């Protein structure tokens, strides 16, 4: 979460596109790459992206322990999930692999704190009430830090990043277009100030 201001959320349909995509993002200055386990190509995509110098490759949309194991076997260095269940959290915490689970309300955050977690993905960020909702939610939880994801754009990111408990934002907007366009979008994202 502190390696850069934006974590791109990547949905890869063809593993052959993974390495050039990761190279374009890293060239632009975005190193932390979340590959969502939403496509059959995702695990191969993680393996391909791991070949790129400087890339920190993790798995997203991890919703059960089996997917966690598959992701780690493919080389994932961190795990992101849309929500938080103890069934998923237990093996991840046991392994020591960095884990960013999704939260959307106070009960979710309290469950995370009970498990020893303090860093959360606020998801789906805009649909859950946006920055106003996160500010209200963060107030009682001074120790919590967030990566809002869902509906965030290059234009809206600065407002989120200006809120102290937000360490980074996530989004899929960087990963569209030609590789030259991806690189340019990564460069603009990497220049965002926290
Ligand atoms: C997702 O689940 O796809 C992420 O939250 C990304 O959302 P976005 O496409 O709105 O950036």
From TrEMBL:
Cited NCBIfam families: eda
InterPro entries reported for this sequence: Aldlse_KDPG_KHG, Aldolase_TIM, KDPG/KHG_AS_1, KDPG/KHG_AS_2
Entry protein name: 2-dehydro-3-deoxy-phosphogluconate aldolase
Record keyword Lyase present: yes
Family per record: Belongs to the KHG/KDPG aldolase family.
Pathway: Carbohydrate acid metabolism; 2-dehydro-3-deoxy-D-gluconate degradation; D-glyceraldehyde 3-phosphate and pyruvate from 2-dehydro-3-deoxy-D-gluconate: step 2/2
Presence of keyword Chloroplast: no
UniProt organism field: Sphingomonas desiccabilis
């Amino acid at each position: 979460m502190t390696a850069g201001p934006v974590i791109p959320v990547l949905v890869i349909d063809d593993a052959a596109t993974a390495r050039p995509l990761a190279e374009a993002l890293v060239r632009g200055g975005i190193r932390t790459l979340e590959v969502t386990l939403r496509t059959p190509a995702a695990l191969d995509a993680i393996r391909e992206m791991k070949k790129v110098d400087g890339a920190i490759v993790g798995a997203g949309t991890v919703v059960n322990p089996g997917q966690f194991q598959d992701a780690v076997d493919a080389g994932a260095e961190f795990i992101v999930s849309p929500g938080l269940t103890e069934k998923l959290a237990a093996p991840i915490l046991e392994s020591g692999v960095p884990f960013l689970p999704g939260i959307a309300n106070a009960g979710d955050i309290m469950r995370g704190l009970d498990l020893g977690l303090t860093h959360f993905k606020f998801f789906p960020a805009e649909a859950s009430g946006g920055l106003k909702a996160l500010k209200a939610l963060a107030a009682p939880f001074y120790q919590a830090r967030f990566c809002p994801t869902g509906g965030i754009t290059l234009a809206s990111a600065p407002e989120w990043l200006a809120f102290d408990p937000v360490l980074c934002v996530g989004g899929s907007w960087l990963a569209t277009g030609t590789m030259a366009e991806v690189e340019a979008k990564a460069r603009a994202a990497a220049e965002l100030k926290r």
